[in-house]
């Protein structure tokens, strides 16, 4: 059976590019691994944050557009995104988030303690300690590899038809159902990052796309051959995938599952070092070849942004 290894990336909508960089790099310590444009709307940035190399299962991406309306998290969306942090690092993160005046609360799900909070646009984020997953060797301010975010733990899906979404996870994507408790189904993939997916079973309001919501969740395909097999399988099962789209750092196909959530399947290859060296990732605006002739025009259109170190990290 065809199986995805887990989450490739998650893409969300926000209002302000600099505020997003300040939060995900300045507060959470993720590396800005790529600063490019939305290939479908080049007047809008596409920002990618992940571990030191932007490996699959670590990257959250954003379309920051000031004019978009506030969204509402609900059915047909990813409800929350969870990150894996190293064992015994939760106290560090509670203290750090408090230092930046970010409200947190704790929940228990499937025997794991989650530290939950929101980003500046209202996206729901969770931290969970796990031993699995490679160390993130990126350091930023007081955040060092012994406490740094490793990558995704997983995500919670809010489906208009939870049983239909569960069927897609299990019988199309190849995840394993491992439990049910307190209004959630839990599925697991084989990777050691981005591998734990919960489906919320209790009723929710209808989701509205906009700032503070997830646009789509992407699943991993190992290479282009695997990617082609996924597209053929989806067509065979009646899911009407899009044509294969070149996103420069991966190839992508998209489809809506019956619970209303936009799914993508993305290739692990070629990765973010395809157009700039690993040690320079995120340092300058990178454009696909077909937009290179419009570089100056786009630079004038896009707001200036930078990764900033806050006073809280200067000792």
TrEMBL record:
Gene Ontology terms for molecular function: dioxygenase activity
Positions of the VOC domain: 6-130, 151-268
CDD domains: PcpA_C_like
InterPro entries: Extradiol_RC_dioxygenase, Glyas_Bleomycin-R_OHBP_Dase, Glyas_Fos-R_dOase_dom, VOC_core
PROSITE patterns, A to Z: VOC
Oxidoreductase keyword on record: yes
The protein, known as: Ring-cleaving dioxygenase
One Pfam family of this chain: Glyoxalase
UniProt keyword terms in alphabetical order: Dioxygenase, Oxidoreductase
């Amino acid at each position: 059976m065809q199986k995805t290894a887990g989450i490739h990336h998650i893409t969300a909508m926000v209002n302000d590019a600099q505020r997003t960089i300040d939060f995900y790099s300045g507060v959470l310590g993720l590396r800005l691994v790529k600063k490019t444009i939305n290939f479908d709307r080049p007047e809008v940035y596409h920002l990618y944050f992940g571990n030191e190399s932007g490996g699959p299962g670590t990257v959250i991406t954003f379309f920051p557009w000031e004019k978009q309306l506030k969204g509402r998290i609900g059915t047909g969306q990813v409800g929350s995104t969870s990150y894996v942090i190293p064992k015994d690092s939760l106290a560090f993160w509670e203290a750090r988030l408090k230092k930046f005046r970010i409200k947190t609360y704790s929940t228990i799900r499937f025997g794991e303690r989650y530290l939950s909070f929101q980003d500046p646009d209202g996206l729901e984020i969770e931290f969970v300690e796990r031993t699995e997953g490679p160390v993130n060797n990126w350091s930023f301010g007081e955040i060092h590899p012994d406490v740094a975010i490793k990558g995704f733990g997983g995500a919670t899906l809010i489906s208009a038809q939870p049983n239909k979404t569960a069927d897609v996870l299990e019988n199309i994507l190849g995840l394993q159902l491992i439990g049910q408790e307190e209004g959630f189904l839990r599925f697991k993939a084989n990777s050691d990052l981005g591998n734990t997916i919960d489906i919320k079973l209790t009723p929710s309001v209808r989701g509205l796309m906009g700032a503070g919501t997830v646009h789509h969740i992407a699943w991993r395909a190992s290479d282009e051959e695997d990617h082609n097999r996924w597209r053929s399988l989806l067509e065979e099962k009646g899911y009407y995938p899009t044509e294969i789209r070149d996103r420069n750092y991966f190839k992508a196909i998209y489809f809506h599952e019956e619970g209303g959530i936009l799914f993508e399947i993305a290739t692990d290859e070629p990765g973010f070092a395809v157009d700039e060296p690993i040690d320079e990732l995120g340092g300058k605006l990178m454009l696909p070849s077909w937009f290179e002739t419009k570089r100056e025009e786009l630079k004038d259109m896009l707001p200036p942004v930078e990764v900033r170190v806050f006073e809280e990290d200067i000792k």
